[in-house]
Amino acid sequence: MGDILVIVVTWNAMTWIERCLGSVRDSSVKADILVVDNGSSDGTREYIQSTFPNAILIVNDNNVGFGAANNIGFNYAIKHGYKFTYLLNQDAWLCKDCLKTMIASIRTGYGILSPMQTDAKGRLDRNFK
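The chain above was modelled as a monomer; its predicted structure follows.
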């Protein structure tokens, strides 16, 4: 177990999950991955188990909702003593040094951080709020 837990809530995420979890795996900073699956029926769970065997997978039989699934992830992080928790949407991915940059910033006193949001072409998403 490391210091950082990345929580990803999934529901039928096959379109995005390789890029999403792959970006965490390839990050310049090691992070554990926790996937909370909300009853996927498209093979998401099986794909994660076979392709990302080190990911921690919590399976909900039905969709408990995005917020409740994130709370399951936060409870796991607290129970297991993680110092940092990062919420990553299933259709998003990290730049290689994202976690490194955020950890450097948080150690200067910030409690909550959000990275810059960019669109698929790498442009700043000014509509993100």
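Residues 4-106 form a domain with the Spore Coat Polysaccharide Biosynthesis Protein SpsA; Chain A fold (CATH 3.90.550.10).
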